[in-house]
Amino acid sequence: MSTSLRQQLQNKIDQKTKPLGSLGKLEQVALQIGLIQQSLTPSAENAKAFIFGADHGVCDEGVSLFPQQVTSQMLANFAAGGAAMNVFCRSNGIDLELYNMGIVDTDARWPGVHHCSVAAGTNNMRHGPAMTQTQCQQALLVGREAAQRAAAQGHQIIIIGEMGIGNTTAASALLSALTGLDSKTACGPGTGVGADVIALKAQVVADAVSRCQGLSAAQILAQVGGFEIAAMAGVLLEAKHHQLTVLVDGFIASAAALVAEYMEPNSKSNWLFSHASAEPAHSAMLQALDAEALIDLKLRLGEGTGSALAYPLVKCAVAMLNEMASFADAGVSSA
Ligand SMILES: Cc1cc2ncn([C@H]3O[C@H](COP(=O)(O)O)[C@@H](O)[C@H]3O)c2cc1C
Ligand SMILES: O=C(O)c1cccnc1
After folding, report:
1. ipTM score of the complex?
2. pTM, whole model, 2 decimals?
3. Nearest to 303 by CA among 125, 134, 148, 83
4. What's the Rg (C-alpha) of the chain?
5. Where in the chain is the domain with CATH 1.10.1610?
């Protein structure tokens, strides 16, 4: 069924009134979404974005330019509608849902923010596991259930975003532990730290990753991940059960994708990599996933912003498949 649907989708795209292959990556996007939805007429009209927020114990090592309270302050900003992701979601008609996965201030509550706190942030991964396996499963389940609800609400496109000061260190550690990439290459500026702090991040990551030898992907996620990263992995793993297309954002969301693909190989056929992050090791992450980013806007923000910006292109790719005339329809001579 799949092979012939792939051929039918390819034929439909090839018969559109354009030179063969001339819509480049958009043609691949249309084909992929057709296969995900098992349809020659898929839909990308209803997009839902999730932002998962969580704190990271590794901030004690001084790995970020910003203080840890910024995670909580940004959750308040998202709830008030003032962050970059709020603006891009409003501009592009994307429904945004917010999740507190576990921040230091355990009393904090905001209207419109799902309170799914696993703990008061992770433990410092340099000195021991960031979380227990039970906490990791709990965070994965939040993501899985969020994806299930979105599918039941009729969303076809899911955007995963995150907020968590210190989480580029967790993402670098996942990359290094899962692929064997050396910690220096895996670490970068994140919010904008200089060479001295990047060297410190690399040492912290090397220390944490030294505990990961011989562990499974799920165990590595608990050792060096974050609650928001686990929640994103849960969404990613659930996608294939509901014909959902997940638009993966930058460095941190891609780390969730990497660990999810190692946990359940071949999950990635339901994912699209929205953009190439300016975080240097993102290219290594995409390479490990054998993936290519749709666009490159030199973003290094996270939150899901690259995916919110790429969403109109995804909609256009699907509209091309559904609405564009064929050579026969339009009476245009083919080559
Ligand atoms: C105001 C502000 C808004 C953000 N929105 C996303 N991030 C991004 O930066 C953080 C990761 O970088 P690092 O590992 O260097 O701390 C994450 O919260 C990520 O989402 C932000 C960071 C800041 C400061
Ligand atoms: O690409 C990202 O997701 C990213 C890069 C730097 C800082 N925060 C997020």
Report:
1. 0.99
2. 0.98
3. 83
4. 20
5. 3-41+321-330
For residues 84 and 231, give the distance between their C-alpha atoms in angstroms, rounded to a whole number: 21
Q: How far is the CA of 286 from the centre of ligand 2 (A)?
A: 14
Burial of 302 (0-12, 13-18, 19+ CB in 10 A): buried
Which CATH number applies to 3-41+321-330? 1.10.1610
Rounded to an integer, what is the distance from CA 28 to the centroid of its chain? 19
Residue nearest to atom 7 of ligand 1 (CA): 301
3 pLDDT band (50/70/90 cuts)?
confident
Q: Given 3.40.50.10210, 1.10.645.10, 3.30.70.3270, 1.10.357.10, which CATH number is that of 47-313? A: 3.40.50.10210
What are the catalytic residues?
Answer: 303
Q: How many angstroms separate the alpha carbon of residue 39 from the centre of ligand 2?
A: 34
The answer to whether the CB of 191 is under 6 A from ligand 1 is: yes
Where exactly does CATH 3.40.50.10210 map onto the chain? Answer: 47-313
Q: Which atom of ligand 1 lies closest to the CA of 73?
A: 1
